[in-house]
């Protein structure tokens, strides 16, 4: 185990989101991206965001706390007449799925109107602790 377990954190989060019916009802699993999105991704979509790790160096233990975010982008369409409410529901589902993981806590959520017309961005900020005994 590394003192910067970002890969493990990202893998656990993406797996949890793709297996959550509450999340995939709103955003198809194929549009829940680990980091990089395709050029002009179809909305709605989600993307794993910035990571910041605080290493754990306790005797006999290795790992750390990963502070990260998961972003959602939703645009108005025939199927989504109210993108803000849709984004709020997606953020709530994602926050619930992340917070249900062991050693993972949602810190806050944010809703921001995008620079694109009729488009909203939601962000779930969370901390996941990943440690193992040596």
Summary of the model, kept short:
The mean pLDDT is 95.
Key features of this structure:
134 residues, five-stranded mixed β-sheet, alpha+beta, STM4215-like, 5 strands, 40% strand
Can you describe what's shown?
- With 134 residues, the chain is of the alpha+beta class.
- The chain has one domain (6-133): STM4215-like (2-Layer Sandwich).
- It contains three helices and five strands, in the order ααβββαββ.
- The protein has helices at 6-18, 21-24, 83-99; strands spanning 32-33, 45-56, 61-75, 104-113, 119-133.
- Strands 1-2-3-5-4 form a five-stranded mixed β-sheet, covered by helices on one side.
- A hairpin with a 5-residue loop joins β4 (104-113) and β5 (119-133).
Pattern of helices and strands: HHEEEHEE
Number of helices: 3
Q: Any low-confidence stretches, pLDDT <50, length ≥5?
A: none
* Largest sheet, spatial ordering of strands: 1-2-3-5-4
Q: Quick one: overall form? A: elongated
The CATH architecture: 2-Layer Sandwich
Share of helix among residues?
25-40%
What is the CA-atom radius of gyration, in angstroms? Answer: 16 Å
Q: Note the gap between the termini.
A: 9 Å
Work out the oligomeric state of the chains in this entry: single chain
CATH class: Alpha Beta
